[in-house]
Specification:
By secondary structure, this protein is an alpha+beta fold. It contains three helices and nine strands; from the N terminus they run E-E-H-E-E-E-H-E-E-E-E-H.
Length: 152
């Protein structure tokens, strides 16, 4: 089964010193589940025009600041577009860095609470609150079309 790893642009962050981003590590079945949920919201919206989205607790996004990737030449610059698929060799490096960050608790990983997946009738995105603050982070939306393309 194909693994799909994405770096996703994040908005918000208030006073965070670095531009945050999120890492999503999904299996193809997880991407299909997201597409199915989008279709479910679309179907529900036909009978309830006031429905905008459904939300569910979901901790699948790993939130961190871009300083974790100073070696990629971008430092705290924004990603190129909404998301970037991460190849296997880069993912191995990222995994090592994440393990180091989590072990050292050096501040590059962002501790969050209230992690939520938000699904609308044509896209989905993740949202959270930085722990012990009122700072809200939100990923850019991944459309149904983008999700389907990941499965091809």
């Amino acid at each position: 089964m194909k693994n799909i790893n994405l770096l996703v642009q994040v908005y918000g962050g208030g006073d965070l010193t670095e531009v945050p981003c999120a890492l999503l590590m999904l299996k193809a079945s997880g991407v299909q589940l997201l597409i199915d949920r989008i279709e479910q919201v679309k179907a529900l919206k036909e009978s309830d025009r006031e429905l905008y989205c459904i939300e569910r607790w979901d901790g699948s996004a790993l939130w961190f600041d871009r300083s974790l990737y100073e070696g990629d030449g971008r430092g705290s610059e924004e990603l190129d577009g909404v998301f970037e698929e991460v190849d296997a060799s880069t993912m191995a490096e990222i995994s090592e860095e994440l393990a180091t960050v989590i072990d050292a608790d050096n501040g590059a990983s962002i501790r969050t609470e209230c992690d939520i997946l938000v699904v609308t009738d044509n896209s989905c995105h993740w949202r959270c609150i930085v722990k012990h603050t009122g700072v809200r982070l939100e990923t850019d939306c991944l459309s149904r079309t983008e999700l389907r393309a990941m499965l091809e």
